[in-house]
TrEMBL record:
It comes from the Bacteria. It comes from Yimella lutea. This is AAA domain-containing protein.
Length: 202
């Protein structure tokens, strides 16, 4: 099973995927963004949105098909995907290949998304490492308009829900039994920092 976790930038896709993976031994997180950054560094004149590269969409689809065959547990995919044609090409392609794909869209208020993204961009270490959320802020209206459409699967409002509540709601909807408990507040924050640090793109 592939569980695609969609959402605007700052909605908590990556933290949700990694916490689901932590609480479900045998599961896996597959990050399509890594393929995009690899293509940017490999192909000439590829500084735009890597989702516009047909090769990226093919690589994501094919790698997820292979990944689903290599694990008995669910594969969690945190990735913003808004265009219907790209969604059909990747998610529709996975389903045509016989892969069970479940899709969740994390819906967060614009004010909360702005708060989260500005907190990131204002963080000194983030600026030193080149983490600029300006582009993400500019995409908020487009993201919110697209993700509220019915075709974007099950909507999960996480404006005021905690990460644990979102994870437990998704697991229950998937009929999966979480095998590990919640972390203590201190360990929870430590893990969030560690996950965020691993996803800083230089």
């Amino acid at each position: 099973m592939i569980v695609w976790i969609n959402g605007a930038f700052g909605a908590g896709k990556t933290h949700t995927a990694h916490e689901l993976q932590r609480r479900l031994p045998g599961s896996h997180v597959a990050d399509p963004e890594l393929l995009g950054f690899a293509l940017r560094k490999t192909l000439p004149a590829s500084d735009g949105d890597f989702q516009d590269l047909p090769l990226w969409r093919i690589m994501v689809r094919d790698s997820l098909i292979e990944g689903s065959r290599r694990t008995t547990g669910p594969v969690f995919v945190p990735m913003t995907l808004l265009r219907n044609d790209y969604f059909e090409e990747i998610v529709g392609g996975l389903r045509s290949a016989g892969v069970d794909v479940r899709h969740y869209a994390l819906l967060t208020s614009r004010a909360e998304l702005e708060r989260r993204l500005k907190l990131r961009s204002g963080y000194v270490l983030g600026r030193i490492l080149g983490r600029d959320e300006t582009w993400g802020l500019q995409q908020l209206d487009r993201c919110l308009a697209a993700l509220t459409r019915d075709e974007f699967g099950v909507h999960v409002d996480n404006t005021s829900r905690s990460l644990d509540e979102v994870v437990e709601w998704i697991a229950a909807d998937l009929e999966l039994t979480l095998q590990r408990p919640r972390l203590s507040p201190l360990r929870h924050q430590t893990r969030r920092i560690a996950v965020a640090a691993r996803h800083i793109r230089l």
